[in-house]
Amino acid sequence: MTLREINFDGLVGPSHNYAGLSMGNLASTAHAGASSFPRAAALQGIEKMRANIRLGLTQGIFLPQWRPDGKWLAALGTDVGNAEAHIRAAAMSASSMWAANAATVSPAPDTSDGRTHLTVANLVTMPHRSHEWPQTLAQLRIAFSDQRAFAVHAPIPAPFGDEGAANQMRLCERHDQPGVEIFVYGQAGGPFPARQHVEASKAVARLHGLDPDRTLFVMQSPQAIAAGAFHNDVVAVANERLLFTHEQAFANKERFYDELRATLPCVEIIEVPASAVSLADAIRSYLFNAQLVSLPAGGMALVLPMEARETTAVWAWLEEMVAGNGPIRQLVPVDLRQSMNNGGGPACLRLRVVADPSNVDPRFLVDEARLDDIAAIVNSYWPEEIASADLADTRLIARIEQSWLTLVDHLQLSGELMP
């Protein structure tokens, strides 16, 4: 079995819009009511996937979900034509594109049965995301259907909020070696909701059969949440033996660092001081919502949004870091403006799975040629622009539905993913 990192990116769906549904997500709130550009958004995401492939990485994809979600609306006693505006917007949400919230993943070297475990996130804290999990679970059960290699779990029951890999990190000497899994949770009582509950994190760890001695539960800094770090991956990211984090990411960082070093002596911690990069600049630029990846030739690269390069303090600190002799050797800025405007950067768009690619359903793996085909469908079918008033337009809804059907049919998944 050859284990490697596979980054599964969520393709931005044809209903991508700026309804400002995510309380505590400053970018989402700031752009509420603005016109979105679904075609450009999806093509930007595809270009990020191409950049990863050109770095020598294995790339996967998750499909957009069927929108509007008629089953959810029916359970609320309404439909897209009669729903209140905020309910209609929630039913049209394309937020499943942020695959970091699809599931929590524990690779085979960490689990008691030697399989890779995935627990689909319940996302119960936000109404527009709370109805994603059934369609996400359907894709996970197809992509990871080999039960010799994978175990796919249903969501943690409400009211315990679970938002997936955006609040979990894994550190290890190598991807194919046992690691330390770190679950980061929030505490209620601040100005914004704490989306990850410690009870949910502990339940996931039990379901995955993790070694308690190699599992850490760490509280996110209330200061970071209040500043707009709605998920841990907005202020910290990890890869293999490296933790890259802001100074103000964790509530009790000294105790966390001590526990981490005791559990994984080879760990390296790069902490960005608030004196060099303020919490506000880190969140505005999504410096830490980056993909920290191992390069085939050695060393690591940081796949960053363009906003990081455009933020003077952030880019100056990064250039100084790369000029040193540290583990991060390359900076790869990517244009994800459409996703960033709705509050999601490079790390939000991907779910990292350590597995043998031969065990994954090949329909969920992509190369440049397959991305060419998907881009052609996006160019032909995705709406160019959606204004907030368009969400009730029956012609737009018909186009969104046709876009999804065309893509799913092309990928030969229509018989398994029909809504």
Describe it for me?
The chain is built from 16 helices and 16 strands. 51% of the residues are buried. Helix 2 (38-54) packs antiparallel against helix 14 (368-381) and helix 14 runs antiparallel to helix 15. The strands form five sheets. A four-stranded mixed sheet has the order 15-1-2-16. It has 419 residues and is α/β, with parallel strands linked by helices. It has a single domain (4-417), classed as Succinylarginine dihydrolase (L-arginine/glycine Amidinotransferase, Chain A, 5-stranded Propeller), CATH 3.75.10.20. It starts with a strand and ends with a helix. Helices cover 34% and strands 19% of the residues.
What attributes characterize this protein structure?
L-arginine/glycine Amidinotransferase, Chain A; 419 residues; 16 strands; alpha/beta; three-stranded mixed beta sheet; globular; four-stranded mixed beta sheet
Distance between the termini: 35 Å
The number of E-state strands comes to: 16
Q: CATH class, anyone?
A: Alpha Beta
Unreliable spans: none
Tell me the CATH topology: L-arginine/glycine Amidinotransferase, Chain A
Largest sheet: number of strands, sense, barrel closure: 4 strands, mixed
